[in-house]
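User: Second chain of the day. Same drill as before.
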Amino acid sequence: MKKLLLMVPVLLLVAVLLTPAQQQIGSPAGEGSNTLYSWGPFQGATTGNVGMTANTIRVYAIPNWASTPVIFSAIDIYVSTADTTSGDVYSFGIYGPCTPGVAICTVAASNAAVAFSSVGFLELTPSQTTPIIGYPTIAPGQFYYVAWTGNASTAQINDAPGRYFTPVCDALSSTSSSGGALPSSIAIPSASWGVCGTTPIFNIHD
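Assistant: Same format as last time:
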């Protein structure tokens, strides 16, 4: 019995030392971080670029989300190709929760149209209409979706490597945009499950 009691603290210490310190892809951030949610590759992973066609809305389902309601004040993306043309503006946002194929899915958070005029980290200030709720809470078959649009087709943002199973990957909504801004609601493309290789990398935080 004494030997067993002596082993318990040792086992607890080993468990602590073996706990992963790096944030999982597509999950709430670790303790001590002000990033509430991250979607994208681990640091150092190879990234690609995703562009667009003017006045169209590209949609990506997020198959994993935070387990608790989230309210945030910033969405971070990385502009990989800048658009320096005056008047060209873009918008990035989150819709849902909705089922794939639904005709009307309302926006949860999106930014006003802004210029993507320089390469690098870009922090967007979203208007969040409702807290993002956790997946244990939303109905089965529903998802959140990231979407982005613009009134031009020059700018590109970083995307993640192709290793995410998702029902909607780099699909175009039948809803069009105007003035580079995302509308308050969009039609979500029908589900087509597969490995997605063009999911934009983003963070949300307070």
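The helical segments are 2-17.

User: Great, on to the next one.
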